[in-house]
Amino acid sequence: SLARTVAVIGDRWSLLILRECFLRIRRFDDFQASLGITRHLLADRLKKLVRFGVLRKIPYQDAPKRYEYILTQKGLDLY
């Protein structure tokens, strides 16, 4: 429903993160560089989007552990 969608992506930063995902940005440092968002706020929004199933977190490096954030079908449906 629309109310559930707004609850997930209703804030400015979540929308901007999703926009970057649609433009094929996938990595934490790239999101931060592109958006100028603080690390803490970015980590919080990414966790929220993963928790709601809009993004999925996939490891791409082991030492140190790093992840890419990929749109799920639910995330693609937002487009």
Report what the structure shows.
- The structure is a single chain.
- The chain has 79 residues and is of the alpha+beta class.
- The protein is 58% helix and 16% strand.
- It contains five helices and two strands.
- The chain has helices at 2-9, 12-22, 28-35, 39-51, 73-78, and strands spanning 55-61, 66-71.
- It has a two-stranded antiparallel sheet.
- The chain is globular and about 40 Å long.
- The mean pLDDT is 91.
Terminal CA distance: 15 Å
Specify the helix fraction band: 55-70%
* Beta strand count: 2
How would you name the oligomeric state of the polypeptide chains in this document? single chain
- Biggest sheet: strand arrangement: 1-2
Structural class by sheet pairing and helices: alpha+beta
Proportion of β residues? 15-25%
Written as H for each helix and E for each strand, in order along the chain, the element string is HHHHEEH
Poorly predicted spans:
none
Number of DSSP helices?
A: 5
CA-atom Rg in angstroms: 12 Å
**Mind summarizing the main beta sheet?**
2 strands, antiparallel
Please tell me what the overall shape is: globular
